[in-house]
Amino acid sequence: MAERQDGFCLREVLAAFRACLTAEQTVLMDPYLRGWNGLIRFLNSLGTIFSFVSKDAVTKIQIMEKYRSSDQRERYETLQTMVEYELASGLVSLKNRGECPESGCRTILRLHRALHWLQMFLEGLRTSQEDSKTSVICTDSYNASLANYHPWVIRKAATLAFCALPTRNAFLENMNLGTPEEAVDMLGEALPYVCKVYEITEELYAKHKMLDLP
Ligand code: 1PX
Q1: pLDDT score for 7
Q2: Domains in the chain, start-ordered, CATH in brackets?
Q3: 10, 37, 79, 214: which has the fewest Cβ within 10 Å?
């Protein structure tokens, strides 16, 4: 298999999500954002048809990176410290988006919902037959997760773009994890860490009744 020109390897992305997890069951912000940056690189390599998706994700990652390089950077070291800090300082609006449009909590919530899609998509890809269609796996996982939070026009644009996805094996090879079989094995090993990050975040947001932040 030809090496990718841009040196992208999904292994690094999966390792970043693994590195988010601490012994105290908290989620470290920097590897979380590193994982997302890697995913966006991969998304960009799929073509300009996904630009509208990567643009929104990049905006959100940059909001979080800004917090991590600000005077308050320590408050944003983990998702848990961020939630504690923003809630205690009145930086989160539970009702009106306009009041705190760039809170870390609402921004991470959008990425968190997208992580649910990613988890389902990669699991679908991993357990699919060789002749399965990537676009169908992607549409099914999107409809079962992120689509519930998107208006009709975004859902339409997203499902149209999914039709441009490469075949299952080409997609797996594009991850640069070896043969499609090796990629499937790697996903089996690494996905539990992505799931764990998702679960811890979901619990944290549920505990603070923040799963519907506007
Ligand atoms: C190895 C496989 C990995 C593939 C990499 C894929 C990375 C996908 C990254 C998706 C990030 C999507 C973030 C979306 C956040 C969001 O829901 N934003 C909406 C709400 O934001 P707001 O600030 O207004 O409350 C916003 O309206 C979204 C706009 C853009 C459209 C989002 C469509 C999401 C489709 C997700 C699937 C991506 C297709 C990947 C193909 C493999």
Answers
A1: 65
A2: 10-207 (1.10.3520.10)
A3: 214
The DSSP annotation for 191-210 comes to HHHHHHHHHHHHHHHHHTT-
CB distance 126 to ligand 1 below 6 Å: no
Of 43, 54, 103, 128, which is best to mutate to test ligand 1, by the most ligand atoms within 8 angstroms of its C-beta?
A: 43
**Minimal-distance CA residue to ligand 1 atom 42:** 43
Interface TM-score (ipTM) > 0.95: yes
Closest-lying ligand 1 atom to the alpha carbon of residue 149: 17
Read off φ and ψ for residue 78, nearest 5 degrees: -130, 165
User: Is 197's pLDDT higher than 60?
Assistant: yes
Residue 21, pLDDT score: 98
Q: What is the pLDDT of residues 38-85, one digit of tens each?
A: 999 999 999 899 999 999 999 999 999 999 999 999 999 999 999 999
**DSSP state letter for 32:** H
